Amino acid sequence: MAGGSMAPTPLLKDELDIVIPTIRNLDFLEMWRPFFQPYHLIIVQDGDPSKIIKVPEGFDYELYNRNDINRILGPKASCISFKDSACRCFGYMVSKKKYIYTIDDDCFVAKDPSGKDINALEQHIKNLLCPSTPHFFNTLYDPYREGADFVRGYPFSMREGAPTAVSHGLWLNIPDYDAPTQLVKPRERNTRYVDAVMTIPKGTLFPMCGMNLAFDRELIGPAMYFGLMGDGQPIGRYDDMWAGWCTKVICDHLGLGIKTGLPYIWHSKASNPFVNLKKEYKGIYWQEEIIPFFQSATLPKDCTSVQQCYIELSKQVKDKLSKVDPYFTKLADAMVTWIEAWDELNPTTEGLAKLSISNGPANL
Ligand SMILES: O=c1ccn([C@@H]2O[C@H](COP(=O)(O)OP(=O)(O)O[C@H]3O[C@@H](CO)[C@H](O)[C@H]3O)[C@@H](O)[C@H]2O)c(=O)[nH]1
Ligand SMILES: [Mn+2]
């Protein structure tokens, strides 16, 4: 081709969906257009389904509102939250791709210290495509990054690392603070750009934020249930946290890794701390019991699939957390409904094989 240079095909262009929960118009996509336009979007419209959500021209997307969720899942739609960003997990369920990136609609392109626009999606893909080190901490952080490596004393037998299931990005400007912190520090902004990606060690929990998050849907998708939040529920803004605690316990059990750090996005909107306090307050004291539960949770060796692990975890939630509040009985049941809905929309290969055998081989 004379002189012209073919633009490289974006990484995982046909293997990744971008899931966006929204109650607003999606003008924020204009800023992300250079990075997001090649990818398919799954928009989960929360709130009033009769409201028209405007999507900028030129994006390839599918949009689901509450009527769609109810139509597709029937009674199982009860496990998908309403009037809370937790609804985004419906997008994970309907996707057919190997990878998911989810971002909030008040998150914009941040700049790195050199002033260059950060392609958050590209960094998440790099994080997911290279191994994690959950079993032995590398003091030079991510050893697979350009300009880094394993340090002296790192066992060579462990340098292959573990498959990466989750890439947890961070935020400049408005930090993801809980309501009490936001109330006492209303003007605090995160201006610190820390140039690091690190694996969260096995056996350690972390507060997963759904604002700037990517994961391998085939490795860990069924664990990414964002719980029962919002309308009709006693708690909100613990959707991503709950998914993160379940996911980390299951990743530890299955030998998968979770990374946190780069990439940064620019979080532009501070939600109302008083409204947030009302949503969070039960969670603030419940989590003093929830965290020890997850810290001590163990899964049997015969739980070898994410679904099996998740169902086992739901049983333990029902047995051990219902004494904290009856809500956890409801949540444990919703966890089972989630897996049933997931498997209905995503029949596994062995499941399909069973199906074809039971229906008799068509071409004989
Ligand atoms: O009822 C709702 C409210 C919001 N959304 C969409 O969800 C995301 C996040 O909304 P917003 O940016 O307004 O709220 P934050 O407090 O900044 O969100 C953080 O809190 C976490 C707990 O939910 C959340 O994951 C964090 O990102 C936007 O895209 C809204 O449009 C919604 O769908 N339904
Ligand atoms: Mn926000």
UniProtKB/TrEMBL annotation:
Its main location: Golgi. Glycans are attached at R152. GO terms for cellular component: cytosol; Golgi apparatus; plant-type cell wall. It catalyses: UDP-beta-L-arabinofuranose = UDP-beta-L-arabinopyranose. Its EC number is 5.4.99.30. The record marks R152, R159 as: Required for activity. Keywords: Cell wall biogenesis/degradation, Glycoprotein, Golgi apparatus, Isomerase. Belongs to the RGP family. This is UDP-arabinopyranose mutase.
